[in-house]
Amino acid sequence: MDKLIIEGGHPLRGQISISGAKNASLVLMPAALLANGVSVFRNTPELNDVYTMIKIMKHLGAEVNFSDHVISIDTSVLTSMEAPYELVKKMRASFYVLGPLLAKYGYAKVSLPGGCAWGPRPINLHLEGLKKLGAEIELDAGYIIARSRKLVGAKINFDKSSVGATGNVLMAAVLAKGTTVINNAAMEPEITNLTHFLNKMGARISGIETPILTIEGVDELKPAEIETIPDRIEAGTLMIAAAMTRGSVTFTNIRDNHLIAVLARLEDAGAKVLNQNGLVMVSLDNSDIIPSDVTTSIFPGFPTDMQAQWIAYMSTAFGTSTITDTIYLDRFAHVPEINRLGADITVKENSAIVRGVPKLNGAKVMSTDLRASASLVLAGLIAEGTTEVLRVYHLDRGYEKLEEKLNSLGARIQRVAGSEY
Ligand code: EPU
After folding, report:
1. Ligand 1, residues 163, 305, 369: which to mutate, most atoms within 8 A of Cβ?
2. Which pLDDT score, from 0 to 100, does residue 419 have?
3. Is 141 marked active-site?
4. Whose CA is nearest to atom 27 of ligand 1?
5. What is the pLDDT of residue 420?
6. Which of 42, 141, 331, 409 could form a disulfide bond with 118, CB atoms 3.0-4.6 angstroms apart?
7. What distance in Å separates the CA atoms of residue 255 and residue 231, rounded to the nearest whole number?
């Protein structure tokens, strides 16, 4: 468990390329299981959740090669239909192998993901959707066992928009007999990336980028190749870093249409956003940060995965702002830690009330999840003195070399390896 030591007070300047999206890779890789042969994913980020998914693929018997951000997965011979507890407990996205294994092989055994650092993360919608397609599902000793002779298309109305349930059900429906309609499907860009990949494999999905996906099942899919979309959460995190430190950063390999809500809020909060020829530049001079309320929602709204970072940003705004999370009501473990740096934030129900303070002061802080860690790094970048962020393994799950990227822009962050942090 490494720690990061951050010397605050250095403005970020320069140009940075955004890595491939973690949450797109994690849903694209399991889709390879739907065909026999070698599928290829370009622009895959090198981060620990991707390595965990590689372990799962290998556990199933797939051959995986990963070099220079290109991952190839050969699913010609699978030897297991089971995702074990040891791997699923590390990463909930392991659950994505359920839909494709069931659809292609008629059987899957996947450990039930447990709770997570910020409370319950149910999978009822995944299971209800698969049942609608004809799967028989039982829970045995902590494992979901799903069986089906042949899935049959159905109309699925999700009560709630869910990225994971949409991905899992979509990957099952592509090989079902007949037509499936998913109402209230997630429209997150990572799901759109998946639909494009599935169609390249020979699936027949329409309604892409809308909340109603129609899937005409096919008998067989073939392996395919796709480019992973850029990571909108990494981009948003680095944009806040640019503004918070009163710097100026140009972003390449970025899709501005995936960041509409974040860019709008950044402008509301006083940052300058220039968006030209596929590049986005974010800067903020020495004027005050304007308090800006944010309420998270499904895409294209403000992402819950940017909530912690926004709270860090607002911690030194000139006035009070309210940040409300409607997706994960308890996702506020970062608040007491940012307060250790001198911020004045209180949590009431699913909102954080952030009273801006003139400055933060360095301290030791500890994170409990990925985006919480990112918010602490952001706070450390502007805190006076030195901030130590412990338990950086959370950060390493989901950001590709974050401190190296920040340092290339002028930050002063040192990683210290060790088991005691
Ligand atoms: N939900 C249910 N039942 C379900 C599934 C979800 O009630 O069966 C609820 C959840 O409790 C939540 C809402 O639906 O209130 C949305 O959850 P969703 O299923 O969309 O989340 P997820 O698929 O488990 C993905 C990302 C998360 C991100 C959420 C929301 C991946 C691997 N994970 O999770 O990313 O926060 O969508 O956008 O794609 C992260 O990267 O830090 C991260 C947590």
Report:
1. 163
2. 64
3. no
4. 305
5. 59
6. 331
7. 9
